[in-house]
C-alpha cells in the first residue's frame, strides 16, 4: 500500500476543510499518476487510522472524490480509481505546440491599432491616497442591502429558469420600478419599452452614438468636455465640434452658429455639473437647445449621470422632461449612487430606438447581471436607494465644503475654482506657473495619486486643471491630500 | 398637534422595521406638505405614547429622520422639520413640460435603424418549460460560494479605495489566477498582459471584430454558424463568407478556396462543439488552419466557450496552444461554468492587441464588476471551479444520454441527430414534413418554449433544426419536453 501518511499532508491552520484537503491531494496524485486507474484505495476505517482522523472525515473525503467522478465504489472490494480518467485529459494535436507562448505584437497590422491615445485612469498600485475625478464613496453605499436581496434571489431556483433566457433590455422588474422612480425624481414620463438597462452609463453613450452616427457626421460637445464620450464619437469616425462652456453651461449662440455651418448628427450634453467644469445648464439655454433641436433637426444625448447629487441648490428637471418630441435621449447611472463596480446604467428614448439599442446591446454583451438588476429593483421600490442618496448628499456636502476651506487655506494663490452646487468633484485650475505634470510626479513620491491634467487637455487647449474628487474621501483624507499638494508646490 | 395616531399606520406583518415605517410615513407627510418646514414634531416620549410603542422605537425613527436630513434637533425645543427642504425639490424650467411623454418613434431616421433582424432569444413569460439552445443549469453552479467570497470583500473597505480607479483590463488578481488556470486546463502559455476580462465572451467577439475589421473586409464563418457572431461582423460592415461545416468541423479545402479568391480579414472558429451543429474540429484541420493563417496572412478568432464540457471524449488543446505566432485570438467564458447572468468572459492575444482591446472596452463599459472578478479569482485558486466542472460534467452526461434515449423512443422518425461528445445541446434536425414553426406554435399552447428554427436559417439555407439544450433541464424536465414535442407532431 502507498505511504498515504506521507502522501497526504493536512494543514489544520488553513480554511479549507480537512476532508477537502484529503480529496484535493488524492486528486493531485491521480493526476500525477502516483495513483492510477484501477488502483484500490484503503477503506475509510484504514485511511482514517493512517491519517489519525475521525472516520467521518475519511468518508467525507471519499464521498467528495466519487461525487467528482474520480473513484467508484466496488461492492465488497472497496474504492477504486476510475478506469476512464485518462480520457478526460486534454488531447494534444500537434507535437510542435510545446513551449510556444504569446508575443507582445500582433503579426499583422489591425484596423483600429491607432485609437486615440488612452490616458491612464488606473493609478499603478502603491498609492496611499487617490484623488479620483469624482467617484462615489463605496463605503457609504448600501452594498450589503443590495447583496442581501441578491443572496435571497440565489435561493429561488425557479427564478433561474427565467434568467436562463436572454434579457437584453434589462430585468422587467427593474424597468417597471424605473418608470415610477424616474417620474418621481425627474418628471420624465415613459413606459418600460422606452428604457434599456445597460452596463453603466458609458455603454448607453456607446450604443446611442453607434446607432446615431455614421463616419463623417458632426457632433457637438462641450469644450472642455468628457473625454470618454469624445473618444466614443471619434472612434466611430465622427467629427467633433467643440462648443465653449461658460458658467451657464454650453454657449447656445455657439451651438446655433455650428448648426448653420454644418449638418449636426447629435449634441452631447451634460446638463448638471458639466464634466469637467461642474457648471449647470441654465433654464433659458435648456429651452433654446430644445428649440434648436427642432429647428435644425438633431438629436440631443442628455447624460445626466450627476442628477442625484445636489447640495445647496436643487436640480433642474432634465431636458427629457421637457417638450422634446422624442428628440432627447436621456442617460443615467446607478454606478454613481452605489459604487463604480456595480455597472448599472440606463437609457430612455423613443421605443423604436430602444428596440435597436437592445439589439446592439445583445451583440456587445448579451445581457446584464439579471439577478443584480432584480435586487436593485427591490432597493428602489422599498426606498433604500432614496434613503442612501439623502445620507450621501449630506456627507458629500460636508466633504465639498471641507475641501473648499482647505483649498482656500493652503492653495489660495495656486488654484482657482468655483464651488460646485452638486456632484462629486471640484474643477481646480492650477496657476500655469505650477504645471500639474510636475506636481503629479512630486505627489506620487509622497504616495498621492492625482491626474496630471492630460485627461482634459485637447489639441487646442491646455488647462493645467484637474477634477478634485471629494466624494470618495473622508475629511481627514481630504486635508491630507491638500496638505501633500501644498508641499509639492 | 396633528393626529399622528391616524397619520402614521404601523403594519407589524411586513418586514420593514417599525421605526423605518414611522420615518417613511413622516417623510411622506413632509413631502406632501402635511408637515412643513419649521414645524415641530412631538418629543419621542409623547410620540411613543401616541403610537403605543416603546420609546426606543420613536427615538430610532427620529434618528433615522435626522440622519437623512429631514429634521433637526432644536435644544430645549424638540425636533423641527428642516427649513431648507423645499430647495431640494427639482426645479421646473419650462411650464410646457407638463404631460409630455415619449413616442414610439424617433422623429429623425437614425443610422443603424436597419440592423439585421434580431430573432427573439427571450420567450415571453408564461412558459412552464423552456428549451434553450444550450445554457448551463444555474441550480448546480457554485453561486453561493461565489457570493460568499463577494460578501467577504464587501466587508473590506480598504479594497474599495483600489476599485475606485478604473480597471478596464479586469482585476489583476483574476488575470494572475487565469495565467496558471489557462495553462493547466488548456496548455496556453501567456502572461497577465496577454489577457483582458470582458463582460462575457460576446463582448470579446465584439471587441476583437471591431479592432480587426473595417467595412468591406471578408470574414470566414461556418455554415450553419453562430448567428450572434455573424451579426457582429455584419453590423461592422464586413462581408461574410460561409464555409461548410461537416462532421470534422470547418471544411479546410473550402477555407483554402476562399483564401485564394479573397483577402481574408479573419476566420471565426468554434473548435469544440461548433455552434449550432456541435461537431469538434479534427487535429488535421487544426494544423491546416494554422498553416493557412500563416500562408494567407489572416487572424483566427478561436471562440472556445464550450471547452470545459466534455463527456465521453476529452477536449483537444486549442489552436491557441499550438504554434500560432500570435495569429490566434483565444476567447473563453465563465458564464457557461456559472450562470449566464454572471457576465465574465476573457480574450487572450498579443499584448499590443490587448492594449487596444482595453481601450475600446473602456469606451464600451469602463470596467466589469471588480469585486465579483476578485471573488471568481478565489474560486479558481481554491479549486471550487474545477470541482464544480467535474460535478456538472457528470450530471450533464446523464442528461445528454437521457435526452438521446427519449428522442429515440418518441421522435425517432421525425428527428435526426448526432450524439455530441460534449457541450450543452443536441443539434436536432426535424423532418421537413414537420416544420418547426408549426411545432413551436403547438408547443407554446402546451407551455413549452422552443425556438422555431429562425436562429439558424440563413438566406441560402433553411435547416428546420434547433439546438435542444439539455444541460439546464432535469431528467424529468427533459422527458416532459420530449413528450410535449411528440404530442405536437
From TrEMBL, chains A, B:
UniProt GO molecular function: DNA binding; DNA-binding transcription factor activity; pyridoxal phosphate binding; transaminase activity
Gene3D superfamilies (UniProt xref): Type I PLP-dependent aspartate aminotransferase-like (Major domain) (3.40.640.10), Winged helix-like DNA-binding domain superfamily/Winged helix DNA-binding domain (1.10.10.10)
Alphabetic keyword roster: Aminotransferase, DNA-binding, Pyridoxal phosphate, Transcription, Transcription regulation, Transferase
PROSITE patterns: HTH_GNTR
Residues of the HTH gntR-type domain: 16-84
Coiled coil location: none
Alphabetical list of Pfam families matching this protein: Aminotran_1_2 (PF00155), GntR (PF00392)
Superkingdom to which the source organism belongs: Bacteria
Similarity comment text for this entry: In the C-terminal section; belongs to the class-I pyridoxal-phosphate-dependent aminotransferase family.
PANTHER family: HTH-TYPE TRANSCRIPTIONAL REGULATORY PROTEIN GABR
Protein name: GntR family transcriptional regulator / MocR family aminotransferase
Organism name: Mucilaginibacter pineti
